[in-house]
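From the shared-data thread, chain only:
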Amino acid sequence: MSTTTTPKQAILFLGATGGCGLSALRRSLEAGHTCIALCRTPSKLSSKLPSSLLPNLKLEQGNAHDASAVASCLLNPNDPSRVVDMVVTSIGGAFSLKTGIDDANVCEKGANALVEALAAVRKSPTNATGNPWLVGVSSTGLTDAGRDIPLLLVPLYHGLLKVPHKDKRAMEDVLANSGERFTIVRAAWLTDGPEKGGIRVGVEDVAARKFEKKEIGWSISREDVGRWIFENLVEGRDEKYAGKAVGISY
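Structure, as tokens:
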């Protein structure tokens, strides 16, 4: 009986020191993929991973808003003439109900730095080739195609969370207009619980601003967001999600 295996990839993670990004990173390392992580404090990330996974992880110190720092992580460690196969960005600011968000443009700046860095490594002297799949973690409640959140959450999302969600939407626009293959992963209200499966998946064609499949859900754990990214985009590389915004929830 023949079996098929997913070719091992080189994947850059931005914002993977916790939450959704860490969940996707850990699973990618466990599957044997070569992973690069750009962190302001690399030890903060390495301390959260089993030592057995570290040989497949290249940790780089730097800021994801610095295009030169991002560019230094984009070359495939297994073939420096090419860029990485995928970039998963889950950067975000610290949010407090009392003080709001600490950086109102954190996601947009990160997306702009990524696109700028990609353009740079494709020029001399590196002249790197390849077309990475850009995966951006965002939020439900941002679509123009129609309501994708419960009615009771509308005041919260469009009121209290207006500033961080404006930033998430700006990030989405940067990735969608980059000319690269992309997928926006719009997670419902994030929780710190364990993975539990039963994920509902809504799909929007970003260019057409039209739902292909609509789902409305309340929440999802960060663990399950990372698991969905790993199973469907890292391992599955499911082309039906290319150019789409995917809303995931329970």
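Residues 10-249 form a domain with the Rossmann fold fold (CATH 3.40.50.720).
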